Prior knowledge:
With 132 residues, the protein is α+β, with helices and mostly antiparallel strands. 20% of the residues lie in helices and 30% in strands.
Amino acid sequence: MRKYLPLVPLLFILSCENDQFQLDDQVTQINVIQVSDRSPSPDQFESDGKIINQMTAKKKMDQVRNALVKADVESTENVDLALPTYKVHFLKDNKIVQTLGYYPQDKDHEAAFLSLEKERIYRLDSSLSLLP
């Protein structure tokens, strides 16, 4: 029993939630969707919206993935944020595997992605040109 005791802290550490962005390496397409011109209602945000950019080039998709992995992560659990006017669908073989809200960079803020599911915001340290 004593020789297994040092494994307990390791198992605990490995079981803790990882805030770093994770995405399946098999994503085949990224779609940027404009939901509305202003901060949308929750119903508008859930609607289809209009696809304004489709990415299928591996290099561009890797650039988005790498920016998200390097992003500063903050909890949105106790924050009142306006929903973003854009959302990004990550697809694998034409099936949505993940959706994030997208706040493009403006004069006051860096670009950021919002995960409603995980209650996290991923603030980028560099700009991505996702909008046409």
